[in-house]
Design a protein that fits this description.
three-stranded antiparallel sheet; eight-stranded parallel sheet; 12 helices; alpha/beta; homodimer; TIM Barrel
């Protein structure tokens, strides 16, 4: 059995920088047409020169692959319209991090005062620059995202023309918010469709499944799976694939992030098949919805998957992927692009 | 400032066996008068010969310390009255593990059918042998203990003369159950008085704080702290101190357990002081309640603590303790026993 996916898009991707960028960029660039690239480098990408230079380094790292890095800036409340106009052509979105909430987010937003944010967010709305948000408070780990929903609602009400993407949502509360505001959208990762806190800490502790936001309860996972399988028109695939070196994931005090880029399409195909879902829905979840929401036209890429066992490597250049060493039921057979 | 604790008891302790037993037994035997020793060795301690031999190995490992190991058997539904009479003098309690729920519990109980359990539990009630229970279902990790409360209630109703100890409780649901049944009691660990899931997985992943039952929500911790500080008459200190070698805790797929034996009294003293609680309550929590509930008279031991900074070692014979490398405000000054 074969299946063709057209121009897959990953609307939330960490490519890192330097050696790590070179080690992992091709894993995404090979099978995806493009990806929204997160700006949380050290220091964060927050001006035109840096975003252009980072894009050049990505292009260099992907070699001959046909792949568009959709660049983002790290949101700062002092971005003004003049600045945003000057950088508009270089970026696809701007990513907002609450301060200190995840890897390299120390310089993020620490209050959500609408008037303080108004100049920047109004200008973004006017220039049609989507705001991608890591929506977690600094509350109790299982409540952080649900607590943040009131901030999403405040921003969505105050800036009705601003496209707000609730990134890597993990709870039913976020899904319910999607339908209450026209200008709220969401990305969902692979791992949050597949695991709960049980998989991270219910048996032995599994650092390779430790991520932020942390995987939640079974009923949350069910709610996420439902909107993904139904290709809810406001939901897009975003892997949040976040590589860390093996030693950093397996050390005491391990960093958050699951590396899924090289297995994303195989796993999603298996998941949609298992749930008897139409592959039209998978196509919408993996590309169509994102094209419509972001107004992007990706590079043409035809990914042919076949039902043939694929043993996930133990590592990709020193990074341990999700399902390392396990068997998936779909393999990538052929990629036709250009 | 000095404080004297008399005959401290640890009503839930893992001493392991072999090299590990020799490495860690003195950490408990030095400051405690006695401890209830868990039977989950491989294979579990479930007959008279094994419990006598294990006690001898413990006595050997503690050297010159004055310390009573209160021995337990690993509960099996086929224990009958004749067997229990024959072993009565060698044991203080019997520990029930649901099958597969924690370290070395594979041979535990897999159903909780009252009639199937009646011969063993009735005989235990008659012989006044307390039943210590690891109360978790195999449900979602945050719900396992709360789900088990209905099993506690079923056992407490069906065997009103059986003393049932809810071990290492972590939730407000368990605390509420305490007051509904005369024959339910509980132990509480140090770590569950101090940490929540936030400390385990809210920042970086902290394998040394990963334990079963997993640390729960802030409101659960508050409820536990309240009954401990008030020295609720049905609540006793039980450390559940559970050593694993450093490499096993820091490896991918780390084992559950927090090692607190060598810091227990210092930490509890600091905690009770911080909360402006009377040291009479600490004395009741650390010894008095257990003496009354179990009907034991511990070896006389006077532990004098002083308010003087104590830097917790990075390791005790290859085992990383809670608060490794951190400063506690109380030190053990002198121990008078015999």
């Amino acid at each position: 059995m074969e299946l063709t996916l057209l121009s897959p898009l990953d609307m939330h991707l960490h490519l890192r920088d330097g050696e790590m960028l070179h080690n992992i960029a091709q894993a995404s660039a090979h099978t995806f047409s493009g990806a929204v690239i997160m700006p949380n480098l050290v220091p964060p990408v927050s001006n035109k020169e840096d975003v252009v230079a980072y894009k050049d380094r990505i292009i260099d790292a992907i070699g001959n692959e046909n792949f568009t890095p959709y660049m983002t800036l790290f949101f700062k409340p002092d971005y003004d319209k003049t600045f945003l106009e000057s950088v508009r052509n270089e970026i696809t979105a701007i990513k907002l991090y609450p301060a200190g909430i995840t890897t390299n987010s120390e310089g993020g937003v620490s209050g959500f005062d609408v008037e303080e944010l108004r100049p920047a967010l109004s200008a973004m709305a006017e220039l049609d620059i989507p705001l991608c948000v890591h929506g977690e408070t600094n509350g109790f780990v299982m409540d952080r995202e649900a607590e943040f929903v009131s901030i999403y609602e405040k921003l969505a009400s105050a800036f009705p023309k601003l496209k707000i993407i609730m990134e890597h949502i993990t709870t039913k509360e976020s899904i319910e918010a999607l339908d209450r505001f026209d200008n709220l959208y969401a990305t969902i990762t692979i791992h949050h469709l597949l695991i709960t806190l049980d998989d991270v800490a219910g048996g032995m502790l599994q650092p390779h499944l430790f991520c932020k936001p942390i995987a939640k309860r079974p009923e949350d996972r069910e709610a996420l799976l439902k909107v993904a399988l139904n290709a809810h028109p406001k939901v897009m695939f975003g892997s949040d694939s976040a590589p860390h070196p093996k030693h950093a994931k397996e050390a005491c005090g391990c960093a958050a992030g699951v590396f899924t880029a090289p297995i994303a399409l195989q796993v999603l195909t298996e998941l949609f098949e298992k749930n008897n879902t139409s592959f039209e829905n998978l196509q919408a979840f993996i590309s169509g919805n994102a094209q419509r929401i972001y107004g992007v036209t990706p590079i043409y890429k035809k990914v042919i998957l076949e039902k043939k066992s694929f043993k996930v490597p133990a590592e990709y250049n020193g990074v341990v992927p999700m399902y390392a060493g396990e068997e998936l039921s779909y393999s990538v057979k052929e990629i036709i692009d250009g």
